[in-house]
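Structure ticket #2291
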Amino acid sequence: MVINHLKSGLLITATLIITAFSCNKDKATNPCVVNAYSFAVTSEWIQQREVYSIGDTIFLNSTFQKNLLDLVGNYNVDYSNAKSIGGNVTFYELDSVQHRVLGAVSKFVFSQITGSNESNSQLPNEIKNIFYHESSSAYTYKIGVIPKSKGLFAFFISNLNSQGILGKNCTNASFVNALSNTNKNINLFQYAMNRPPASQFEIDRIYCFRVQ
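Resolution: structure written out below.
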């Protein structure tokens, strides 16, 4: 489902099931070619620090209510009973000598708390695909990430996608997903890469830190 942020830009992860009649009214949950809704949500890395030790746990936490404001139509939508809501997280080690990024999934232990994840089949040492859990009032994803090695690292969250509400066609949605962290330690990225992040899009979704 997705994609190397620095090599080809962060893309919204989606698997669109396109049929000849994309807006049929049948019993299936078929998305339309264009997303019916666009929402804004946030994620956070906690506890936020610039320096961690081996064995510390960094939590990625994201929770949003089912009643969401559609960014295009500017009206509230009850987005209960979604078929699935998911995206991905990319894990990089920053090579400050050759100014490059390296896949870093193997540098961490993962403790799944809420929701689920799976390895990305194309880039298993860079990307984990993530899926939110639905409760009675909200969608939640939480995972603990525990460093095993010293180094400089950068994590990127993606935007999210849903194929739609179960039993309803043309209800697929995109979720603009940005970090709410007040300090993403972007100075570490600039030091290691000898340049700032390529765009505001990346700045909104990157979290950097050092493990000592």
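Closing remark: The radius of gyration is 18 Å.
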